[in-house]
Amino acid sequence: MSVPLLKKSTNPENEQCIGDLLSKGKLLLKRNGIENAEQESLLLLSYLLKMKKIDLLLKRHFPVSSIKAKRYWQWLRQRREGYPIQYITGFQNFMGLEFAVSKNVFIPRAETEILVEEVIKLIEMIPEEEPVSLMDIGAGCGVIPVAISSYFKEKGRHIDFHAVDLSSDALKLSFKNARRFHCQNNIHFHQGDLLKPFIKKEYFNAFHGIISNPPYISKTEWDSLSDEVRLFEPAMALLGGEKGVDFYKTIIEESPAFLKPGGFLALEIGHQQKDIVSEMIRGNGIFEKKIVTFYDYYHNDRGIIAFKKNLELK
Ligand code: GLN
After folding, report:
1. Which of 112, 166, 210 to mutate to test the pocket of ligand 1 (most atoms within 8 A of CB)?
2. pTM score of the predicted model
3. How far, in Å, from the CA of 115 to the mean position of ligand 1?
4. Rounded CA gap, 248 and 256, in Å?
5. N or C, which end of the chain has less CB nearby within 10 Å?
6. What pairs with residue 210 in β-bridges?
């Protein structure tokens, strides 16, 4: 009896197993000059299929539905054009939390985690029994208030946060992220220009700390930014005027009225702005002379903390 020849499987999904999509995706990105083609094709598929990267590698032979595969190709094509990967997946990790992002907001950067860590240390110096009030100026997708609030929530401490942004899209996303991490009851959202929404008696001398990662790119730096940033991230969240320091000027001038005596102003800064921002703070006369500065992971100047004089003690 003759044995029929085994035919190759006719399963149409064969063409679309995880391993196939990964290698084709990598090739497409690589051909278009994307540096981390392998990692990015893996990251995109991991978000798309809601699977851990390690599981994708373990299940390379698993079929992927043609709808998902089509979506994957759409994502790869967007990425090929330089569209930021975070806007494609809709997420950016910050302090280990997955924040929803959209093309209307600045993509949170790892450097800002250092600002958050510094602020957490300052808050931990405030006596446990004292209710803490904080403000974040230019909240974007809300990483600063949400990360800090959720840290203290875990520790059983309530922080009363006020987050302000000019963009209503950013505020919507901030609120969504606050809900995502169950701290929507800790954060009050205000739409407006810098400190303007706080010009009310109840907010004067009311805050233990004011925090901001304002737009700080100068005109000259703007031209040297990568296309990925310049063409796709919102310019209003990046540009800080001619020298990049316009927002610091207003924040430094106006924040003391809202800080409690001894309260802190914690700012992220551009790597060449330490001197100019320190001078603004010293020139103001309402802050203590002693200013704390900190570096980012590359040892660039990245932040400044100043304290409002504790006039009551003098
Ligand atoms: N505070 C937000 C962040 O740090 C947004 C900053 C901005 O839009 N410049 O990510």
Report:
1. 112
2. 0.92
3. 11
4. 13
5. N
6. 135, 265
Ordered by start, the domain boundaries in the chain are: 4-76, 91-307
Top mutation candidate among 106, 107, 149 for ligand 1, by most atoms within 8 Å of CB: 106
Q: Which CATH superfamily is domain 91-307 in?
A: Vaccinia Virus protein VP39 (3.40.50.150)
- Whether ligand 1 lies within 6 angstroms of the CB of 144 is answered as yes
Q: In this predicted model, what pLDDT tens digit does every residue of 269-285 receive, in sequence order?
A: 999 999 999 999 999 99
Long-range contacts from 27-32, C-beta under 8 angstroms, 24+ separation:
28/76, 28/80, 29/76, 29/79, 29/80, 32/80
154's tokens: 């875990």
- Which letter, b or e, does each residue of 9-39 get, where b requires 16 or more Cβ atoms within 10 Å of its Cβ? eeeeeeebbbebbbebbbebbeeeebeebbe
Q: Residue 251 above 90 pLDDT?
A: yes
